[in-house]
Amino acid sequence: MVMRNEAIKYAELNYQRTISFLNEIISIPSISTLPENSGDMQLCANRLMEKFKDLGFEHIQLFPTKKHPIIYADLLHAGPDKPTILIYGHYDVQPVDPIDLWTSDPFKSRIDGDYLYSRGSSDMKGQIVACLAAIEAISETGRFPVNIKYIIEGEEEIGSPNLKPFLESHKDLLKSDVALNPDCGMVGINTPTIVYGLRGLAYFELGVFGPDHDLHSGVFGGVVHNPAQVLIDLISKMHDNNGKITLPHFYDDVLQLSENEKAELNRLNMDDSYYKSQTGVINTWGEKGYSPVERIGARPTLEVNGFLAGFTGIGAKTVIPAKAIAKLSTRLVPNQDPEKVHQQLLEFVKANIPNTVRWEVEMLSGGHPSISDTTIPETVALAKALETVWGKKPIYKREGGSVPVVADMQQILGIDSVLTGFGLPDDNIHSPNERLHLPTWHKGIGALIHFFMNLES
Amino acid sequence: MVMRNEAIKYAELNYQRTISFLNEIISIPSISTLPENSGDMQLCANRLMEKFKDLGFEHIQLFPTKKHPIIYADLLHAGPDKPTILIYGHYDVQPVDPIDLWTSDPFKSRIDGDYLYSRGSSDMKGQIVACLAAIEAISETGRFPVNIKYIIEGEEEIGSPNLKPFLESHKDLLKSDVALNPDCGMVGINTPTIVYGLRGLAYFELGVFGPDHDLHSGVFGGVVHNPAQVLIDLISKMHDNNGKITLPHFYDDVLQLSENEKAELNRLNMDDSYYKSQTGVINTWGEKGYSPVERIGARPTLEVNGFLAGFTGIGAKTVIPAKAIAKLSTRLVPNQDPEKVHQQLLEFVKANIPNTVRWEVEMLSGGHPSISDTTIPETVALAKALETVWGKKPIYKREGGSVPVVADMQQILGIDSVLTGFGLPDDNIHSPNERLHLPTWHKGIGALIHFFMNLES
What we know:
Largest interface: A-B, 98 and 98 residues
Number of strands of chain A: 18
CATH architecture of the largest domain in chain A: 3-Layer(aba) Sandwich
CATH class of the largest domain in chain A: Alpha Beta
CATH topology of the largest domain in chain A: Aminopeptidase
Helix content of chain A: 25-40%
Oligomer: homodimer
Largest sheet of chain A: 6 strands, mixed
Shape of chain A: globular
Strand content of chain A: 15-25%
């Protein structure tokens, strides 16, 4: 208990230094999807490797992949009779467009009131820095009670194409008892949250190709099937009037919510008015027959993430575009399978596309949904830590986002994940003006210290 | 007859000089819709004014408008007992994007075989230069048989917002017996064509607005109505399964084709295989119950000219976009009215938009359709001129494109238009690699000389 208090005190005394390190990491524009930022990816990985060295990690190694390298570092002082925790992180961030909606430079952190603004502050450089701060506080004031293996990948925001092969080929190196994944968040500043379910993802690009060049809409309007119109008609058919997705057999593998889970989820008070205030929409929308929190946590969705065709500048241009493209993605729930959904989409397009156009479907990324056991000792240790810091029991939640690595670690390494994180729903992650609520994050560092210390017993 | 031959000879001898002038005019990127090109608009107008001066035009004046100026020039040597022809032109061109599909600089004319490539070569700087070359040939070798008033506007490609007010406030200055409008084209290199019908246009921008910022599709997918999805569903409903437009009362004012017109139009041999070869589509499409040439000439259409929402770069970004916009336009036929169609669209959106989003419809431009009398002496003079040069009678056609000034001149100045032009359907107007078929254009200069001389009698 003395040692625990020393660690907490250390974290408090070094809080400004922790923020400085966060600022430093944030200033590196590690956008994994853009080829022009590949140098920044390397830079960010190097800076984290240095940090692991400063923290006394022993085996530190950068594993190259086909795209962005994976960082591995371990601290095994606790010894072979103590449990080993595999901590997961990602050092890549989302693109920043539309850039004109940012009120300050996305890669220069700006503190305004309780918030620190910048790309990656919440998702998830802030979470990585919180973990490292907790580890440092314990290491500097005593002895780490468990063994740690830490991996930080650089491709989470592009669907982690090289993580699964890495897990598969490094089973021995990564052998652990449980994983800690701080890539989730809390429901609200006063609601400590444990996530036990995650949606999967299947992301596609659809292209429809008509004439071999853009045409004058007067000269050819009436004989050519406009590719934008074709893609619009196709996508429109993917939902029915009840907001259900119409891909063939799409719901066959969907696990229905139990009455107990329904009750627990609906305890969250995340109702229509909550989501209206979070998003600014005038009315919510979704699959009929389910509450908002059920729809987000436990029901699959299909979204148009992007659509581009023809002339979209200022003014008017009377063209029939030669092609139209859409970025479409589905969020999947247990036990749906991204590759199966890929096949369902192909089947759907084949059945519904007219014979006036050429088309193409490319799967850009996919990840499995997951559900974790909430009764394992590590999850109990986390629940106790959150209760210590917030003074109330955490709620248990199924998350709408996707952390496919959780399912991958279950399947490949045979370990469950404890899911936490100190971001909030209005952090604008993946959006302009992403931000981190500093008081919550600050508490999070404390909670992580308690979590690690709770594993002692 | 001697004078006519002298003029033809003059045009032949000066053909290379005519091409040089075309190259010069083409090198000025007079894109009316882009604010950054407003200086080029002025430059292009100035160069044409100089040319009118060189040709001996007397009253030459630039009329400023709210946007781009209108050039007026007249040559009234024939005297008050001779007829006066009002020639129309536009010196503005379409934007050049997608620029990467051009094989050479759009504003540097490149000759390859029979074609001269550049933006504006066919639509319609080439047509202006052909007219000026014909006028020069006659003026330099004799006396011009009729009076000429020439107006060239700079806003045709953005819907001529300031032309109608100009016509209304300058009725005396523009008083003429008939108009010559060379902004049309020929059906094929061996098919001299007289256009007697034109479609109108109503061009809109539709915006749908959902959340107040782009959202993470995992965190919020299931409670927010995706604005791209809403706009897609809305646009999809604008056509029925027969390719008919579903705006309320849209077809009420559509003039049905007579059996005679149907027969004449279908004589054109512009069938499915013709349009497939012109456009590269694998199959044609359109309103059921009409042939391709009927659909283009005499039936209205609604096209998606542009659509933009969310992330459209390389790779994947899992956003629910905050907004979606579409550029939509309808081509109208007699007796449809663009403003009525605007009201029909508003009514349609109100009836079909869900209560989950905000929306906006802006009308960007509109122009009336028109039909001209083919028996007036000036059209007969043109038919004779075309027959002289091509050795065969012209065909009569209703054009799919829009030249709203024809209806405006009918209504405001009380004059019919004779419609011609020496562009071809595969000139890629409004598209990358716009081009002009030089042998046809060369013949066109001769035909215009014969046309003016035919007005003598």
